[in-house]
Every structure is written in C-alpha cells, then in structure tokens.
Amino acid sequence: MFLVIAVSIFTIPASAQKMKPSPEPYWVVENNLKTPKNSVVCFYNTDHALMYKENIQNKKINVNREKTRRMLDAMLTEVATAWNQKKQLNGEEAWEGLVAKKLKSKNF
Fold first, then answer.
1. Euclidean distance between CA atoms 23 and 17, whole angstroms
2. Residue among 56, 46, 69 nearest 96 (CA)
C-alpha cells in the first residue's frame, strides 16, 4: 500500500506555471548580502521582458524610502516610453548610467 502511494506521488506530472502579463511595467532592485553597496536595477515591460538593466556600484539603494520609489517610478515611465517607441535602450550611450546619474543628482 505504501509503495503504491509513494509511486503515485512521484509520478504525478509537475507543470510549470506560466507568467501572466502584468498590467503595468515594473522595476526590480537586486541586492546581495556579500556586496551590500552594489545593486542591480532592472526595468521590465508588461510581458516581463527586460527593457533596461544597470549595475550600481558603491551606493546602497533603499527601496523602503518613498523618495527612492518615486525616482524609480519616474525612471520606469521614461524607460517604458522609450521602449514603446522602439528605441534600443541597451548599449546606447544616452542611457548608460541612467540610474547612477539620478542617484547622484541634488534632487535625490
């Protein structure tokens, strides 16, 4: 009896869950415990495709701060607008350091 239950549990096919499109573009900030002052900021479109990615060195991004979230939301709008206009964001000099420049500005 136990053998039948064990075999049936392990033979049940597992199906991967498909990601549904999100209603809006979104951003993600990735931090690492080993390098706390380095972050990666990623902007995704509604189909979860990466629109823009930037590595931030020597600056910890605190997403719990309202000001930081507002800045990332504003940059998301800018990136999404450019993406929707079919501009290639990765590799263009105009987009390099987009997040770092905003973090260093006096308004932030």
1. 18
2. 56
In which domain, by residue range, is 62 found?
21-104
What is the number of structural domains in the chain?
Answer: 1
Q: Residue 18: beta bridge partners? A: none
For 61-97, the pLDDT digits (tens) are 889 999 999 999 999 998 888 888 775 555 455 566 7
Three state DSSP letters for 34-51: CCCCCEEEEEECCCCCEE
Q: Which residue has the higher pLDDT, 22 or 5?
A: 22
pTM: 0.68
Q: Say if 67 falls within a structural domain.
A: yes
b/e per residue, 85-95, with b = 16+ CB within 10 A? eeeebeeeeeb
Provide the token pair at 103: 């973090």
pLDDT value at residue 23: 85
Closest CA to 105 of 67, 76, 78, 64: 67
